[in-house]
Amino acid sequence: MRYLCLVCFDGSIIDTLPPGEWDKIVRDSQDYDRELMERGHFIAAEALMSPDTATTVRMRQGKMTATDGPFAELKEQVAGFILIEAADLNEAMRIGANIPLARIGCVEVRPVM
């Protein structure tokens, strides 16, 4: 079954990390993607630009409106995703928990319909 792991964190925390820690998280993330590929769990992954580059669109009564920024006013914003293959939710949660950005943020694990 496929699961989407939404990776979320507060981008302002990057400046508070010890020197080199952010670079280590980035390297660990790339290594983890390769590990998931080798184990047959990896389908796709992408990092997203900063939330201030987002535009939220809505369609109401046939008219589109656009608002700058993400819809949700949250401290932790979606930073990227990993689409995985896992036997069940428990395996998907274990995979999601090991995503390096989970160390400074969170990972929402959701089955794909």
Automatic annotation (TrEMBL):
Checking SUPFAM superfamilies in the record gives:
Dimeric alpha+beta barrel
Range of residues in the leader sequence = none
InterPro entries documented for this protein: Dimeric_a/b-barrel, YCII
Q: Which residues form the YCII-related domain?
A: 1-113
What family is it from? Answer: Belongs to the YciI family.
Q: What is this protein called?
A: YciI family protein
